[in-house]
TrEMBL record:
Gene Ontology molecular function, alphabetical: adenyl-nucleotide exchange factor activity; protein homodimerization activity; protein-folding chaperone binding; unfolded protein binding
This protein's UniProt keywords: Chaperone, Cytoplasm, Stress response
Family assignment from sequence similarity: Belongs to the GrpE family.
Function summary: Participates actively in the response to hyperosmotic and heat shock by preventing the aggregation of stress-denatured proteins, in association with DnaK and GrpE. It is the nucleotide exchange factor for DnaK and may function as a thermosensor. Unfolded proteins bind initially to DnaJ; upon interaction with the DnaJ-bound protein, DnaK hydrolyzes its bound ATP, resulting in the formation of a stable complex. GrpE releases ADP from DnaK; ATP binding to DnaK triggers the release of the substrate protein, thus completing the reaction cycle.
Primary localisation category: cytoplasm
Region (Disordered): 1-37
Cellular compartments per GO CC: cytosol
Pfam family, one: GrpE
UniProt organism field: Candidatus Methylophosphatis roskildensis
The protein's name: Protein GrpE
Organism lineage string: Bacteria, Pseudomonadati, Pseudomonadota, Betaproteobacteria, Nitrosomonadales
Amino acid sequence: MSDQPVSPDPVEPQGEAATPGNPPAAVESMPSLEESLRTAEIKAAEHYDAWLRAKAETENVRRRAAEEALKERKFAAEKFAAAMLPVTDSLEAALGVENATLETLRSGVELTLKQLQQAFQSAGLVEISPLGERFDPNHHQAISVVEAEAEPNTVVQLLQKGYLLHDRVIRPAMVIVSKAKGL
């Protein structure tokens, strides 16, 4: 035995060995910090530009919606006003008649009332006429209570019609309601 340490066998690299005609396999290198920074700045600029465009589009949509809502409020009564014009014309024509009789005035008023009711109907205005129905405090306003043959809490007299506009009470019907006898 000798005093010299035994050296292990050299390990050959796996894969093809480098030869004069065959350069070693390319080692993937990490991009430099400058390149990474440049790429990140470009992406950040693209995202910022996209954000600015989205923000501008959102503001445009919001502005257009506000303008449209303003127009809707301003001209909401346009259809109803157009339906009321024939009623006005009829009333003015009735006042313009020189030799009107009671019958002609009555028939003119009836026709005008029909025009008015049609205008109300086309606008979604429905009358509340609850005679004989159960009292509903959401749609009726009781003015007084009287003893009557009807079941208690029944509308026995209508003093003034009420009106709903698309299921919202515009004016409750003013009614007199029955109570049990002897109470």
